[in-house]
Write the structure tokens for this entry.
Amino acid sequence: MSDTTRTAEFAVELRDVRKSFGKTEIIRGANLAVRPGERVAIIGPNGAGKSTLFNLISGRFGSSSGDILLHGQKIDGLKPYEITRKGLARSFQVSNLFTRLTVFENLRCAVLWSLGYKYSFWKFLADAHDANDRAEELLEMLKLDKRRDVQAMNLTYAEQRALEIGITIAGGAGVILLDEPTAGMSRSETARFVNLIRDVTAGKTLLTVEHDMGVVFGLADKIAVLVYGEVIAFDTPERVRANARVQEAYLGSVLADQQAEAGQAAHGRAAGH
Amino acid sequence: MGRTLETRPHYHFKPWNVGRWVLWGLFAVVLTVAPLLWSSGFALTMLSQMGIAIIACLAYNILLGQGGMLSFGHAVYTGLGSFLAIHTLNMVADGRLALPVSLIPLAGAAGGLFFAALLGYVTTKKAGTTFAMITLGIGELVWSMSLMIPEFFGGEGGISGNRVVGAPVLGISFGPQLQVYYLIAVYCFISTALMFALTRTPLGRMLNAVRDNPERVEFVGYNTQRVRYIAFMISGLFSGIAGGLAAINFELVTAEVVGAGRSGAYLLFVFLGGATFFFGPIIGAVLMVVALVLLSELTQAWLLYLGLVFVFMVMYAPGGISSLIMMNLRVAAFGKLRPLLGSYLALVGTAATILVGAGAMIEMVYHLQLNEALGPELQFMGATLNARGFDSWFGAGFVLLVGVSLFELVRRQFARQWGITQEEIEREIKRREAAL
């Protein structure tokens, strides 16, 4: 396999990835190659397997067959923490926080490994200045500095979503997977949130699952359309829009409706699901 | 960054930070002064056991409170630590090993660590219910081994030793109980400090994260099994110290120290003391010794009372005594404790009434079952009861009924009052937050 020659070419690559639960095949030979720095939105009808695909890439589930590569290195079969250490981080559709820890502690936990603290019990957190500074910096970035010492479970929904993103990006991963980051947010919250996500993921390779077309156009420069476990199109928004197969399968009507608004106000629309 | 820290809201209640040095100083003073205040032989025995229990319970809480690991077999590690310590002590006595008696607990620590590393490797592969089941299984395994290998466990009679070995160093021979107490106190203080320090380290914090959400921990780069395993070994190490001290203290180690009963006691009393806060297990340990030594002297039905208290706590105060204390300190910090005091008095009064009624009935049943030969009469709280008389049963039942109904009334009223107080505090916090 010519893995080494491919190293620089793709940040994330899926080759004929399949996943079955029992007799049902959810992912049916998905192919996708994302270049470093590309910002990709994965869209598709409910049940197309978008979240499953994320779970496969991030190591939450093992794939049934096919290859998943991160910077040309095979990562399928690795544990989530091994994949995380290789520089891929993900967020969850339902906020997945350290509920009884404070906002600050949540963020600090998320940076510890990347700063090399590992399992150390011979040094104090108070002396881990780089970790503390990074966590404070994240607090300000996420506009959660006023809520620093509040337990994660006592945050508002929007704040929990922000913290969810914060934990994801805290470790400085180069490849970020966001699973419906704006799900359940109000229109105004979504608009603000898209700006936040754009800021904190600047310069990184971004894959996001999203239903809200406004968010899709606000964040992504490429769209992958997943239908019944297959990527049927992967291109710029304009070309995806024009793709006959996509229109037939799912997208035509949705996109046509939103083309006007989405074009000018990139992120103004509330979720349509 | 400095500015952010300064302007940060300060309403958060953190007594642990404010008076940390005061608290540690106080802890040292209490450990030092306690045997001077209660100097009788009996009191000294109890204080020594409390010191040992504090280490064991804190070590258990590394698993339960900090790591969310419900272990049903903690006595395995304190107990095996005890056995290793007593064997080491006997080797020292035989002249096969040169080691001061004051360092024997470290042999216990090594034993605890070794077996935690060995058995914990399997145990910590899993979390949650599976973890609990494995600890239960390993507890039973070690218990059955204790009967199969009398050479190590000493069979029915256990292994005895003599802590007075060799010439006294600086006049310390560890003959007198007071000297043993201070040895325990020193180990207790150092162990407590080290275990507290653990909660402030990267591993300690990730252990909390594993408790709260093991799945997410894997997605921030940590192997949850490794976190649990290391914590389990640290817990085993301190448990071993407790076990080693117990070996020196009692000069006898029997198989029951690895038994399920002992494991259950650790769980029960750590829960009573409260697993949420670091100091909860210390309260639990003190209660454990009081219950096991004093209460068992007072009444044969002590286990039954203990069970009742446990059920009561699980239902009404699942955070244990420490969280009751902390909740009320929070109320006090907002100056709202005074109006609650009346309700507390009423709660205590009605609870005591229940206790008298229920206690009278329990004691009569036990009297009938166990002391039949002594006739139907018994003494209970200064009154003479007739276990076969209608009056006594009617009286006890009446007191119980009155107690229960009054308690329920008071409790409902208190629950309302408590809810209102908490709402006021929340509003106050919001107000202060907005004022910033």
Q: What stands out?
A: Strands of chain A lie at 12-21, 24-34, 39-43, 65-70, 73-74, 88-90, 175-179, 205-209, 222-227, 230-235. Chain A touches chain B through 47 residues (CB under 8 Å). Residues 44 and 226 of chain A are 5 Å apart (CA to CA). The longest helix of chain A spans residues 157-170.
